[in-house]
């Protein structure tokens, strides 16, 4: 028994046994003795379990003031401030601040997925992900925002969403000063500066800066699209795309710009749009110095210099520098035009074309030139127009050195040499 008294923390199995024995329901540790059930507990363990049941948080962080129920949680939290990551993966060298994260990460290398969904057959590395996924089938969204009423499948998404209302962005990039709502966003963003891409596809060798992007990409090879829209039957390879698509049917646009009142289906579009007003272009090409509002355009632009076109059409062999262009092109072969204009009935093969077309009816020209006040229906037209004022000619021919204002002229010119 003396050995137990010297132990500083509750062993998890002991705590689980106590909970299963309905300590929490009884709210009284003395009731254990009344029923005869015995646990191998020290005095300190009994005190810690009492604190756990009562929800007492007597372990406080000196850095930020956050309080915790037990010392082990405080120790784990403190590594957020110190940056300490004592648990290192032997496979890839990645480090973690908590052992459970290392164990979870290691399953990426072993491929172990013990939790399988009975509805769709999808398997998961750990149970929490399985539980979250299962809510897709049940439709359960237990976490509801008191500010706007939006509900979420799991708590982390709810916590992340709530920061939209508070404006809190505690994680700042030391390279460019950009701030993020949560640390994972900062970690992922920092790879833009380091160009680190630790997640590599075994099928085609393409590398990614985030594991989720690799998982999403891998479905290109498998063809898996587990998320199906009940309204139109369209299927998607990941949930976020499905959620965004569903708002087309509901008309929901929860993200509204305070500058011009324009509303958006999802936050990323709102963030990108807001840069039109601020003029922020955080993504700069090291080859030609051209800057971009958002990363996707920057990544697409880089392929102009490299000539990379990894996405090839199986029907005609035409290659593209990004998947979205291939998807859009493929509809030429299928003839699919799922987006109809309610005003004139004209159909389009993708949603963005419908939005641009609708401005013919509304007369909306949201993109205004700061130099001459000329307005445009599309942002790309404003960008092209703005070069008239700057005199910039970013597209230069490597054969003869001639420069062009926009890419289409450069492509036409380049055919002279080929």
Write the layout of secondary structure elements.
Elements: H1 2-6, H2 12-20, H3 23-26, H4 31-35, H5 43-54, E1 59-60, E2 67-68, H6 71-82, E3 87-88, E4 95-96, H7 99-110, E5 115-116, E6 123-124, H8 127-138, E7 143-144, E8 151-152, H9 155-166, E9 171-172, E10 179-180, H10 183-194, E11 199-200, E12 207-208, H11 211-222, E13 227-228, E14 235-236, H12 239-250, E15 255-256, E16 263-264, H13 267-278, E17 283-284, E18 291-292, H14 295-306, E19 311-312, E20 319-320, H15 323-334, E21 339-340, E22 347-348, H16 351-362, E23 367-368, E24 375-376, H17 379-390, E25 395-396, E26 403-404, H18 407-417
Antiparallel strand pairs: 1-2, 3-4, 5-6, 7-8, 9-10, 11-12, 13-14, 15-16, 17-18, 19-20, 21-22, 23-24, 25-26
């Amino acid at each position: 028994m003396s050995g137990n008294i010297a132990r500083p923390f509750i062993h998890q199995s002991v705590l689980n046994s106590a909970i299963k024995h309905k300590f929490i329901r009884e709210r009284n540790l003395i009731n254990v003795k009344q029923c005869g059930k015995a646990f191998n507990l020290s005095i300190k363990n009994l005190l810690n379990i009492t604190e756990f049941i009562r929800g007492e948080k007597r372990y406080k962080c000196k850095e930020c003031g956050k309080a915790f129920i037990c010392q082990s949680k405080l120790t784990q939290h403190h590594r957020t401030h110190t940056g300490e990551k004592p648990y290192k993966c032997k496979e890839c060298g990645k480090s973690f601040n908590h052992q459970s994260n290392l164990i979870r990460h290691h399953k990426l290398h072993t491929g172990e997925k013990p939790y399988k969904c009975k509805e769709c057959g999808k398997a998961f590395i750990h149970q929490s992900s399985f539980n979250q996924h299962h809510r897709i089938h049940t439709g359960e969204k237990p976490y509801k925002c008191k500010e706007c009423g939006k509900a979420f499948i799991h708590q982390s998404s709810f916590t992340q969403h709530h920061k939209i209302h508070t404006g809190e962005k505690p994680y700042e990039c030391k390279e460019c000063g950009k701030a993020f709502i949560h640390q994972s966003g900062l970690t992922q963003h920092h790879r833009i500066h380091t160009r680190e891409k630790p997640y590599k596809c075994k099928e085609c060798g393409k590398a990614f800066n985030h594991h989720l992007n690799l998982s999403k990409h891998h479905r290109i090879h498998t063809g898996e699209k587990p998320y199906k829209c009940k309204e139109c039957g369209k299927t998607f390879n990941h949930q976020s795309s499905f959620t965004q698509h569903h708002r087309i049917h509901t008309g929901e646009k929860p993200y509204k710009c305070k500058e011009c009142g324009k509303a958006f289906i999802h936050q990323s579009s709102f963030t990108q749009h807001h840069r039109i007003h601020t003029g922020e272009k955080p993504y700069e090409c090291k080859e030609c110095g051209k800057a971009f509002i958002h990363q996707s355009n920057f990544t697409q632009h880089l392929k102009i210099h490299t000539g990379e076109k990894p996405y090839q059409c199986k029907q005609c062999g035409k290659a593209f520098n990004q998947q979205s262009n291939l998807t859009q092109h493929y509809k030429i072969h299928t003839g699919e035009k799922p987006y109809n204009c309610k005003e004139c009935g004209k159909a389009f093969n993708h949603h963005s074309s419908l939005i641009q077309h609708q401005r013919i009816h509304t007369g909306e020209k949201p993109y205004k030139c700061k130099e001459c006040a000329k307005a445009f229906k599309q942002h790309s037209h404003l960008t092209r127009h703005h070069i008239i004022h700057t005199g910039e000619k970013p597209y230069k021919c490597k054969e003869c050195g001639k420069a062009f204002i926009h890419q289409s002229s450069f492509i036409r010119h380049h055919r002279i040499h080929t």
